[in-house]
Amino acid sequence: MAMWRRLLLWCTSGRSPQFGLAFGVLERAVPAAFCDWNTVLAWSRFRTPTATSLQPCTDGAAPGTSGCSSAKAPYSCRRASRMYSTSKTTVEPGEVKKFQALSQNWWDRHGEFAALHALNDLRVPFIRDALLTNNEKQQLGCPLHGLRILDIGCGGGLLSEPLGRLGAMVTGIDPLNDNIRTAEMHKSFDPVLQEQVQYAACSLEEMADEATGMFDAVIASEVVEHVGDVEMFIKYAAQVLKPGGSLFITTINKTFLSYMLAIVAAEKILRIVPNGTHEWERFINPDDLEKLLVSSGFTVETINGMLYNPLFGSWSWISNAGVNYALHAVKNKIEEQSDFMSEKGDRKDNDTYQSESSVGSTVKL
């Protein structure tokens, strides 16, 4: 901008007052011409997709194109253009505002989300390997082919994209429209992702209204510590999952060590993430989280501790879950519950029959 200012000064020096007026106008107009990402993403081509543009097609055409003849999608976000609209919501407005100013920085690997980029080295294999144990439709190069995954709080699509490249049909949702615009724009650079990944600006509860029992896996990575009601959040996650589906959560434990490392060190000293990103009161320890999961019909399969090394910018698995941890839970199958209740009923009927037989034999005597 200094170059333009010097050029304008040279052009208007010694000229009439009209040139001075023109200089004042141009001085304000030139910086406006060099628009930032917010201006670019405001263009019509980068607007947040509506629910209709996100509908999957049954005839092989790309969603939103003229060749798509699907009348209604099996799942969509009602009122997708709103940030959050339900009276009972898991979205915490204060937490959403924290990420509003960072919506254009998701794909800066050396910026505020560098630790999340590095976390993919752990969470992608963690999710992949857990899903492979139950996936019988594996294809070479696309191990997650045929699986539908919901990525809650997807941000700019950091986790949605690699899962889509593994063959999964991924739906990323986020309450911030700006995050979805960024995710859509970055996805457009990779033709492979056009049919594998779709995004919608909505909350989990809005998705649950339209997608009950639709997903093989639900992911909430670094999200639980930002929601308004964790118990309600888990219930909605259970609602969109198929019986036997997997829920993956990465979050932060509520310990003194987590306060010192995740807040004091990471935010205030090392500036790994912006100051104020986390609130220690919102952290949850694995035992409390497991209780909420069990009460919502889940069985916890795995809890692994994670450690971030700021010197190398990398994550590693550790046995101690005192700070960061990853959890895998499976939604109980209805058949298993029915079998249990049936077995319980059979035992009761058998006991009643034996009791009646003994009474009958006593009368005969």
Order of strands across the biggest sheet?
3-2-1-4-5-8-6-7
Poorly predicted residue ranges: 1-12, 15-75, 78-87, 337-341, 358-365
Helix count equals 12
Radius of gyration: 27 Å
Portion in helices: 40-55%
How confident is the prediction overall: mean pLDDT? 78
What does this structure look like?
- With 365 residues, the protein is α/β, with parallel strands linked by helices.
- It has 12 helices and 8 strands.
- It has helices at 2-12, 17-33, 37-41, 93-100, 114-132, 160-165, 177-187, 204-210, 230-240, 256-269, 286-295, 334-364, and strands spanning 148-152, 169-173, 197-200, 215-221, 241-252, 298-309, 314-318, 324-331.
- It has an 8-stranded mixed beta sheet, sandwiched between helices.
- A hairpin with a 4-residue loop joins β6 (298-309) and β7 (314-318).
- α8 (204-210) runs parallel beside α9.
- The longest helix is centred in the last third of the chain and has 31 residues, at 334-364.
- The N and C termini lie far apart (110 Å).
- Mean pLDDT is 78; it is low at 1-12, 15-75, 78-87, 337-341 and 358-365.
